[in-house]
Amino acid sequence: MTAKLSTIALTTLVVFACTSQARAVVFDDNVFFRPGDATWSLSHNPGTPDFYVAPPAIAPVSSGPAAFGVANSSDIPMLGDVDGNGLDDLVILRPGVQNFSWFAAHTADTNNDDAGELGAGGFSSVGSLGVVAGSEGNFLADFNGDGSDDLITINAGFDWFGLGSTNAGLGGGVFTSTSFGVAGDQPFVGDFNGDGTDDLGLYRVATGDIFTLNNTGGNFGGGGVVIAGPIGAGQDSVLVGRLNNDNFDDLMLLC
Amino acid sequence: MPLLNDGAGTFLPDLPFIQFGLDNGGDIPVLADIDGDGIDDIGFTRNSLEHFVLLSGSASLETWNFGQTGDIHLFGQFNIPEPKTFALLLIASVSLLFVRSPRWHFQKS
User: Fold this and answer.
1) Which residues from chain B sit within 8 angstroms of residue A52, using beta carbons?
2) Strand A39-43 to A29-34 pairing
3) By CA distance, what is B65's nearest residue in A?
4) Mutate to test the interface with A, among B66, B74, B106 (most CBs of A within 10 A)
5) CA pair distance A187, B31, nearest whole angstrom
6) Angle at the Cα of A54 (from A48 to A58), degrees rounded to 5?
7) Are A86 and B77 in contact (CB under 8 A)?
8) Within 13 Å, how many C-alpha atoms sit on residue A235's CB side?
9) Whole-prediction pTM
10) Distance to chain B for A164, nearest Cα, Å
11) Cα B31 off chain centre by
12) Interface contact A175, partner B, CB < 8 A
């Protein structure tokens, strides 16, 4: 009995030790969009041992549709996982006369080599979401926590509109809206309270105040407003990223 | 670049921690997890972009030719992440790069 218990304990310790150190290794990959011919190229980050191996040993690996978007146009390239399969998709934001149109080419690993192929998962679109004139920003962010990035657009009056994505891609999900911010604010999005849903944020340049509007239940603002600052008034711009080892998105102000 | 760590969901100001890039050179800042340590790395692109310049964990310089002038570079996840066991490694390297050629610059965290 003692030997059996010791074996179980040792096994448990080994399993715990292994799982406590195990984590998904995720290397961000580089995609570039060439406006002149609306082509996309993807360079898978091999992560061996760091980012790209020093030249000339490695060459970019290009894959995907020959073109997605309109050449020499005002198409705006974006990336986001709009179908929730764990791989980022190519998204085109196209300004029209009055409204934006959104188009997505879904990434899928069709040959099971653990490297996604651009456009291999089909396409989706939303014909009209967001007003072009005076637009304060457009984002792809998972505001309802379902694992797929949703559409967010902000008009000139700082009205935020969100349209949920589904496993089928852009659109088809919940629609929500709120008013948040004033003219001159810089909007941003990210998960600032660690609940797995992306929240809305504002940087008020004049005062340096940071405002976040936390989302819950797929609706903008369900978690209330958090105010921080004044911090770094007059900075140029805001970047959102993970800059430490917690589960909260961080901000970097550029000056 | 002042850094705001969120802590418990509210932003706590940290000291300005780095001067990196040129504010009059058309540099485009980027945050992306290049080395897969779970922490975003800092980089920028220069308008006439044709190269990457990276710093490895040992602060050595890596340069990589990629793209053409005018390309718009984005970073995202296009690989299936696989759970792996490894010792957590904190890589800290700080350097300033000021080169006039079209290159990418990353400060790896």
Assistant:
1) 52, 54, 62, 64, 66
2) antiparallel
3) A55
4) B74
5) 17
6) 75
7) yes
8) 24
9) 0.80
10) 20
11) 5
12) no
Q: What is the ipTM metric for this complex?
A: 0.82
pLDDT at A151 over 50: yes
pLDDT averaged per 10 residues in sequence order, chain B, 109 residues? 49 54 66 78 65 43 62 86 45 31 49
- Per-residue burial over A143-154, b if 16 or more Cβ lie within 10 Å, else e, is bbbbebbbbbbb
Q: Is A194 on the interface with B (CB under 8 A)?
A: yes
Ramachandran quadrant class, A190 (left: phi over 0; alpha: psi -120 to 50; beta: rest): left
When pLDDT is cut at 50, 70 and 90, the band that residue A133 belongs to is very high
Give residue-wise pLDDT tens across range A22-46.
Answer: 456 678 888 888 898 888 887 777 6
Beta bridge partners of A43: A30
Q: What pLDDT, in 10s, does the model give residues A196-225?
A: 999 999 999 888 888 999 887 778 887 667
Residue type at A98 in one-letter notation: Q
Instruction: Find the CB nearest A251 among B4, B67, B109.
Output: B4
